[in-house]
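Tutorial handout. Part one gives the primary structure; part two gives the three-dimensional structure as tokens.
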Amino acid sequence: MVLLQPDPFLNELTSMFERSTEKGSVWVTLKRSSLKSKVKKNKMTTAGEAIEYRCLIRATDGKKTISTSSSVAGIEFAFRSEI
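Part two.
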């Protein structure tokens, strides 16, 4: 799985959608993630620190899988401009 910056991710996602117009599918999944291990999250909560959650976005067409991580507000704006 390739972790891309948001702009190249959206470019590649657009390419995936264009390749699958006549045949095929593209699956997009979104997941809340802190990008930290469970141990680090537990230490942060016991210390009273706030955990910053990000949105992990994955896309696949069955052959290629791409992903990116972004703040929720940032990716919402990017998807609105793409769609």
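Part three, for discussion. The chain has a mean pLDDT of 80. The two ends are 24 Å apart (CA to CA).
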